[in-house]
Design a protein that fits this description.
Layout lengths: L12 H14 L2 H17 L3 H9 L6 H17 L3 H14 L4 H14 L2 H17 L3 H4 L2 H14 L3 H18 L2 H17 L3 H17 L5 H14 L3
Helix pairs in contact: 1-2, 2-3, 2-4, 3-4, 4-5, 4-6, 5-6, 6-7, 7-9, 9-10, 10-11, 11-12, 12-13
Length: 239
């Protein structure tokens, strides 16, 4: 199975571009088309939108997964370019073509939710989460943490903090299962943030202080933790 994860560094799309170009040279004809979609994404992340779209135009839709990936990456580039109305039909086409390819299907639903109305977002997120949880594909299942975080944010935006907290707590559990310490700390921050908005200041303060201690122990710094600590300590009188 083609391992795209090992080729990606989303913090360094230029390096990812180089890896995809090298991988394309030695790949099978079918895998070359998949890799071309990821090359287009890496190029688009560098702001070279026309180049990215050109690469997708040159990619042949040899099967439903490749078809879905072409639409998905074209929609992603168009959204990043600030053209959500043009992105939407591409993302809808990606959702339709990706049925049976859970990882791409979930990604496409997640992207469509980002440009959908608030009324549509909940149904799209829930459908993506249903597919992720039922999937035999670990890559699809591991989308659950991000989807739960998005669901939590939607509740937070609507002022529904009890529902937001429940979603953030589930996201935290999913991150722990995945074993990514950095993302798990972010998930814990989200839980503490929701607790503060529910006036559970003591619980929130304990969590943010624990995060601060962990970050200090590994020589890292997170301004969002410091910002929350300042708010919480002012609210609690430094207790």
């Amino acid at each position: 199975m083609l391992d795209l994860t090992s080729l990606w560094d989303f913090d360094d799309p230029a390096a990812s571009e180089k890896r995809f170009r090298l991988a394309i040279r030695g790949a099978s004809p079918r895998d070359q088309h998949v890799l071309m979609t990821q090359l287009a994404r890496a190029v688009g992340l560098q702001g070279r939108y026309d180049d990215g779209l050109g690469l997708l135009d040159a990619t042949t839709a040899v099967d439903p997964e490749v078809t879905a990936r072409i639409h998905l990456e074209r929609g992603r580039i168009l959204r990043t370019r600030g053209l959500p109305d043009e992105a939407r039909p591409e993302l809808e086409a990606a959702v339709a073509a990706a049925v049976g390819c859970d990882e791409v299907h979930v990604d496409a639903l997640h992207m469509l939710a980002l440009i959908a109305s608030r009324e549509e977002q909940s149904a799209l997120h829930e459908e993506a989460l249903r597919i992720a949880r039922a999937s035999a594909d670990l890559r699809a299942r591991d989308w659950d943490a991000s989807l739960l975080n998005n669901i939590g944010m939607a509740h937070a935006d609507a002022g529904e903090w009890h529902d937001a907290l429940a979603a953030f707590e589930n996201a935290w559990g999913a991150r722990e299962r995945q074993g990514d310490a950095g993302r798990t700390r972010i998930a814990r921050w989200m839980v503490a943030w929701a607790l503060r908005h529910l006036d559970r200041t003591t619980d929130a303060l304990l969590m943010q202080r624990a995060l601060k201690a962990e970050l200090t122990a590994i020589g890292e710094h997170d301004p969002h933790v410091d910002e929350e600590l300042a708010i919480l300590e002012a609210t609690s009188g430094g207790r």
